[in-house]
Amino acid sequence: MNYFAEVNIENMITRVIVAEADNLPPLSVNGDKWIQTYKDGTRGQYAGIGFFWNVEHSIFVEPQLYPSWTLNITTGAYDPPIAKPSNSEDMVEEWNEDNQYWERLNYMDPDNPDEPLNPPAKQIWDPATSSWNPA
Question: Phi and psi for 15 in degrees, rounded to 5?
C-alpha cells in the first residue's frame, strides 16, 4: 500500500490517504501537493493531520510542543532539552516549559501505598542524579 499526505501551502498536512499504485493522486492540485509518507520512519514521522512537511530536510515532522524543544532531523520528532525520564511507576510526567524541567504528581503515599496523598505531592526530575525529588 502507498500512503500519501496532502500538504497545503503552509506545509501543514491536511489529510492522509491510502492509494493503490494504479490510482495515485496527482502531485499537485490547487497549490496543495501530495507527498508519499511511510510508516517505517522513512521521511521522519508517518504523516498525520496537523503535522508538517519540513522542506529543508524533506521529512514529515510532528507539531512542536514547546519552543525549547529542538527538531531531530532523523526522526522528525522534537526532543526536549532534558531527556524524558523512563516511566517505571506508570505516572504521568509533564514538561514544565517555564522552569525547564520534568515534573509529575505523586498521588500515592510512598510510606503507605494504600492511602492516596491529598493533595498530591509534586516531584521534579533531577537528571544529574536520575531521581525524582520533592518540589
Answer: -165, 160
Query: What is the side-by-side order of every strand in the sheet holding 112-126?
Result: 93-96, 101-109, 112-126, 131-134
Residue 95 near residue 67, CB atoms below 8 Å: no
What digits encode the pLDDT tens for the residues 29-62?
A: 677 899 999 999 999 999 999 999 999 999 999 9
Q: Grid coordinates standing for 12?
A: 501543514
Rg, C-alpha atoms of the chain? 21
Q: Determine the Cα–Cα distance for residues 65 and 94; give it in Å rounded to an integer.
A: 11
The phi-psi region of residue 10 (left if phi > 0; otherwise alpha if psi is between -120 and 50; otherwise beta) is alpha
Note the Cα 116 to chain centre separation in Å: 31
